[in-house]
C-alpha cells in the first residue's frame, strides 16, 4: 500500500527537554496504525505535531507526499487530517444530530453559527444522519449530548471528526476511562470507520490495539523503540521490558 503519512527525524524540545527525538514514522494508507508506549514516551507530543498544535523543533512531516511541517491546525484539517482528543469536546446542550450538523456547517462558509435557523441547518440532515449511522448513534440522534453515556460521547466525537471528511483520522486514547462494556461499543465504530480511511491510534489498552491495528509503533523516551505487528511486538524483549511489564 502507498504511504499516506510519514515523518523524518521529527523532534520536539521544551526548554531543553526533548519530548521527541528523531522520530521516523511511516503510515500506509487504508490501515489502522497504533502508537503505543509507557507514560512520557512522547505519544501525545507526536499527535500534537501531526495535528498542527505544535511546530517541530526539527524534522519534516509529509502527508500524501506533500510537506505539511509546521502548518496550523486549520490547514492540517483542510488537507484531510482530523483528530479526536482524550477529553470529549461535544456541545452538551445540543442534540446529537445538531452536534454533527454544526460540525458539517463548520466546513462551509457558515462556520460555527449557532444562531442559524432550522431550515438552514436542515441541509445537513442527510449527511449528519449517515455519519451517526456509521458510528452506531442513529437511534440517539434527538437526545441531548449531555444525556449520552461517556462511551457514547467518545463515539460522537469520532462522528464530529468524520464531519471534516478526513482522509486520515487521529484518535487519541479513544477508550480512556471506559468500562469493558463501553470499550466494546467504541471498538466496533472505529473498525467500521477504518474501512474507508486511514486511522492512527494512540491507545493504552493492548486488547484494543490487537483488535484494530495492522501496524504498531512503540515509543520510549521520545524515540522509536520498535515497530511491527502485534504478534511480532508481544514477543519483542525490549517492548516487553519497556511497556508490557514482562508479560509476553
Which short descriptors sum up this protein?
globular, Rossmann fold, 10 strands, single chain, alpha/beta
Task: Describe the fold and architecture.
This protein has one domain: 3-Layer(aba) Sandwich (Rossmann fold), CATH 3.40.50.300. The chain has ten helices and ten strands. The protein has helices at residues 43-50, 73-79, 96-106, 118-121, 125-134, 150-162, 180-193, 206-212, 230-233, 237-244; strands at residues 3-14, 17-28, 32-36, 58-63, 66-67, 81-84, 168-172, 198-202, 215-220, 223-228. The strands form two sheets. The chain has a six-stranded mixed sheet with strand order 6-7-8-3-9-10, with helices on both faces. A hairpin with a 2-residue loop joins strand 4 (58-63) and strand 5. Helix 3 (96-106) packs across helix 5, helix 3 (96-106) runs parallel beside helix 6 (150-162) and helix 6 (150-162) runs parallel beside helix 7 (180-193). The longest helix has 14 residues, at 180-193. The model has no long low-confidence stretch (mean pLDDT 88).
| CATH architecture label | 3-Layer(aba) Sandwich
CATH topology value: Rossmann fold
Number of strands: 10
The CATH class assignment is Alpha Beta
Spatial strand order of the main sheet: 6-7-8-3-9-10
The rounded Rg comes to 18 Å
Number of helices: 10
Biggest sheet statistics: 6 strands, mixed
Find the structural class using helix and strand composition: alpha/beta
Count of domains: 1
Mean pLDDT: 88
Residues in β-strands, percent: 25-35%
Q: What is the helix content? A: 25-40%
The coarse overall form would be: globular
Between the first and last Cα atoms, what is the distance in angstroms? 29 Å
